[in-house]
Amino acid sequence: MSEPIVELSALTKVFGRGRHAATAVDGVSLTLGRGESLGIVGESGSGKSTTAKMVIGLERPSAGRIVVEGHDWTRPARRVAERRRRGRTVQIVFQDPYTSLDRRQTVADCLAEVVRLHFGSTRAETARRVGELADLVGLDARQLAARPRALSGGQRQRVAIARALAAEPGVVILDEAVSALDMSIQAQILNLLDDIRRDSGVSYLFITHDLAVVRQVTDSVIVMRHGRIVEQGATAAVLDAPRDPYTRLLRDSVPRPGWDPSAVPARGGTQ
Ligand SMILES: Nc1ncnc2c1ncn2[C@@H]1O[C@H](COP(=O)(O)OP(=O)(O)OP(=O)(O)O)[C@@H](O)[C@H]1O
């Protein structure tokens, strides 16, 4: 494996207290290497997003350790400079970028803001970088001048990806980032993400419930259930010959030619 960029050890998150305590993430350990793409799959509520939120500091771990680029990120950053450094190192793209884009800002202004924040660039440098980012994700001049409401879902997701890349991060977490897009747009965005990774060496943590997406864009995969890792390994090996009954169930639940829904065992069968 390449040099580790994110290392999680026995990461745990318990929401609530006493009788109301619920363990959302239960002792998750994983390593993401520089330039690698790691998938986290599992059904709704299995703890995928909570794991991601702990990495970017949106949730505080109850136990365990987070190390990013060799620095301990388990505790929240106290100083502004440290918060900014962390924000620059790991970026996240959510399923619905509309909620996280400022409706009053043009796309160009939105990207320029991030470039200035992280690099303090001059106007000319910022404009040049915004142009590069737009080229990278395939946004044209008209789209750069538009506000988010005038863009399609796929175009907005390109903006969200460009904004994440504007910080020149080592890691981008993609949390169901292509789930809301129709199949052809999804394929375009996945190809784009693949090209960007090859050219820039960025690492992806790819959170999804969609095994077809995992197969297309990840090198290795982790399968989560009830907050725990039930299986992990190289993506092709896990998907072609799953060892865990839950992974088999996930795989067999995906419709494909000749698929027989009646052959998928009931959930209880995997307990
Ligand atoms: N802020 C919170 N307070 C209490 N419980 C929470 C909170 N956030 C998440 N949970 C619970 O933690 C568990 C894991 O949720 P999480 O969102 O991480 O799952 P997920 O695998 O990402 O699901 P989905 O694919 O639906 O987003 C769920 O049972 C959820 O209800």
Automatic annotation (TrEMBL):
The keyword Nucleotide-binding applies. CDD domains: ABC_NikE_OppD_transporters. SUPFAM superfamilies: P-loop containing nucleoside triphosphate hydrolases. One of its GO terms (molecular function) is ATP binding. Residues 6-251 form the ABC transporter domain. Keywords: ATP-binding, Nucleotide-binding, Transport. Pfam families: ABC_tran (PF00005). Belongs to the ABC transporter superfamily. This is ATP-binding cassette domain-containing protein. It comes from Streptomyces endophyticus. The lineage of its organism: Bacteria, Bacillati, Actinomycetota, Actinomycetes, Kitasatosporales.
